[in-house]
## 1
Amino acid sequence: MNISIELTFSPLQDDFEKHIINFIKKIRSSGLTVLENPLSTQVYGDYDKVMKVLFIDIKEAFEMMDKGLLFMKIVKTDRSEYEPHF
């Protein structure tokens, strides 16, 4: 089963930028399809593979900071080829 996940990662501390960069670089190196924009990161692929990668990467990111927030939206389909029609 393929899924699409939108992640918005927000470390709640002054040195937030390095945490976001490390988190995105880690996901990029996973081999998954990853698309980024200024507000979020989208990850696409097989449910088991995506969730395994995120399980590890989210835990590691949280352990490296004092306080943080992660919003995650999951869609049960691969939307990586989506293009708006307007």
Note: Strands lie at 2-11, 33-36, 41-46, 68-75.
## 2
Amino acid sequence: MSRITCPALADKVTSAEDAAAHIRPGDNVGMSGFTGAGYPKAVPGALAERIGAAHERGEDFQIGLFTGASTSAELDGALAEVDGVSVRSPYNSDKAMRAAINGGEVDYVDTHLSHLAQQMWFGFYGRLDVAVIEVAAILPNGLLVPGSSVGNNKTWLDLADRVILEVNEWHPEAYEGFHDVYYGTRVPPHRNPIQLLEPGQRIGDPYLRVDPDKVVAVVRTNGPDRDNAFNPVDDDSKAMAEHIIDFLRAEVAAGRMPESLLPLQSGVGNVANAVLAGLADSEFEHLTSYTEVIQDNLLALLDSGSLDTVSATSFSLSKEAAERFNRDIESYKGRILLRSQEMSNHPEIVRRLGVIAINGMVESDIYGHVNSTHVLGSQVLNGIGGSGDFARNAYLNFFVSPSVAKGGKVSSIVPFASHIDHTEHDVHVIVTEQGIADLRGLAPVPRARRIIDNCAHPDYRARLHDYVDRAIARGEGRLHIPHLLEEALSWHVSLRDTGQM
């Protein structure tokens, strides 16, 4: 019981099955977890068993499920497989939950990650009945030591009527001191400026707070976070990383940013991880990062000494990197801060710091509208996550993708995006392995020419130019954004019907 040293809460230690009994049909439940880190390991599975048994008896039992971001098959997958979720927000990467969402079985509310906490305070989703939060320890005074993610945990603990805590002894006790939980947020019209001026600055507390009277159960666990395995850096990812790093060199040479660059943000994925690997091999030093997640190569940048400090809300590590971090955790103190996601993704802070944002995309159309979330306009992949929080407010943003997929059958540069998450107004630079298109200061038609020439795969380049040429001719030069409406989505129709564009 060494991790649970508050007597009042130690008396509430129970099994996952007994804890899950506090969750009722129709409850809105806020669970911890962000990119497969810090999610509860035991209660979701016990809850899934309760729901499955209820359904076998012919009883209705579903919950509204709210997290920080993605969790794991132990949480999202287990609940989706028993049809246990009615509403899900804000982000999901589990294949079983994705199938349920696309099958119309779960109402999915795709929300910017910086928005969900405040929207819960505003009451947009109704009452939050239960919070299920994983922590590393409970201190004698009842304060909670967070683990590998913070996410929306502060808000869930504040708002929930009933709280279930999981104390996971897999997290090192040395996590104490790694967190910065800001308790100064307010709802309009009572808000104050967020006084955060550099990535490593503390503005909050190292602990989460909870009203002990709301805690109905405490569960002991000892299990690892999800293994966020990354593919080896392939030639396309390496090429995109090199394009971005060369671009940053040019920005420094032009006097638009310092030699140590500006704080970096990178979305989750292989390309972003490759960019970070490229930075480790570059001349850039004394880098900083203000981001959502700490991936393997961001940790490697810290190890190499190229990166001085990083602020995030969560880790997203491979099994090997997580084991290395847990083993050497003391060496990272003072260089890593984990914040609530409403702070890690806060538009005010992102704009003030002048963040450089690097995020993936599904496709971009020729005018720079970016689709980050959907296939064929209708089937959701993961959700917008934090890419909008950072892209719209960044000093400089990059959207990256290989130019083709499925062996060349699909182009990531299309006449018209089938779904738009980031409009042309918010997109600065498009990057594929073919090249880089700086769109800053360009009107639509010059943007189209640059994207096609620099980023489209050669197999699709002539067709894209032909589309623009015919659209301009159709409008006799009087169109701001030339389109052939009858053809705009024809590439996606072809993909749907024939399997290729």
Note: The longest strand covers residues 162-168.
